[in-house]
Amino acid sequence: MNSNGCIVVVSYSLMGRRLCSVLPPFDQAEGSANSQQRLRLVRERKRVAWILLLLAVLFALCWLPYNIVQLLIDVNAVQIDSASLVLPYTLLLGHANSAINPIVYCLMTRNFRRSLRKLICQDPDARLTTKIQHV
């Protein structure tokens, strides 16, 4: 794994650990939040942890083919000529991970889904009005 991969893995691991281990400020002081707020916060943290896990898995899946081909080239298990046919595609897949991440963030965010649903389900005049208001 290259140094960028190590940085991503370590960063995501630290974020996940912090999400799962550190109590939020209002959980530390008893009575400062009701049980519904605590339950909602725990659910939100779990959702964020799942997004983090999904992003880490997608990162690994996108970059794994490139790293495998590079390893095979480095240990002379394959000829460079034959590997050069697939190497650009594996590199493209690795870089596609950068384009996939924002899509995952958007699709897994409730506000985005709500806004998208509103945009798709409204009549064309209402969409135009919404557009004008946001500009």
TrEMBL record:
<dbReference type="GO" id="GO:0032870">
    <property type="term" value="P:cellular response to hormone stimulus"/>
</dbReference>
<comment type="similarity">
    <text>Belongs to the G-protein coupled receptor 1 family.</text>
</comment>
<dbReference type="GO" id="GO:0042277">
    <property type="term" value="F:peptide binding"/>
</dbReference>
<feature type="domain" description="G-protein coupled receptors family 1 profile">
    <location>
        <begin position="1"/>
        <end position="105"/>
    </location>
</feature>
<keyword id="KW-0472">Membrane</keyword>
<keyword id="KW-0675">Receptor</keyword>
<keyword id="KW-0812">Transmembrane</keyword>
<dbReference type="GO" id="GO:0004930">
    <property type="term" value="F:G protein-coupled receptor activity"/>
</dbReference>
<feature type="transmembrane region" description="Helical">
    <location>
        <begin position="48"/>
        <end position="66"/>
    </location>
</feature>
<dbReference type="InterPro" id="IPR000276">
    <property type="entry name" value="GPCR_Rhodpsn"/>
</dbReference>
<protein>
    <recommendedName>
        <fullName>G-protein coupled receptors family 1 profile domain-containing protein</fullName>
    </recommendedName>
</protein>
<keyword id="KW-1133">Transmembrane helix</keyword>
<dbReference type="GO" id="GO:0005886">
    <property type="term" value="C:plasma membrane"/>
</dbReference>
<dbReference type="InterPro" id="IPR017452">
    <property type="entry name" value="GPCR_Rhodpsn_7TM"/>
</dbReference>
<keyword id="KW-1003">Cell membrane</keyword>
<dbReference type="Pfam" id="PF00001">
    <property type="entry name" value="7tm_1"/>
</dbReference>
<feature type="transmembrane region" description="Helical">
    <location>
        <begin position="86"/>
        <end position="108"/>
    </location>
</feature>
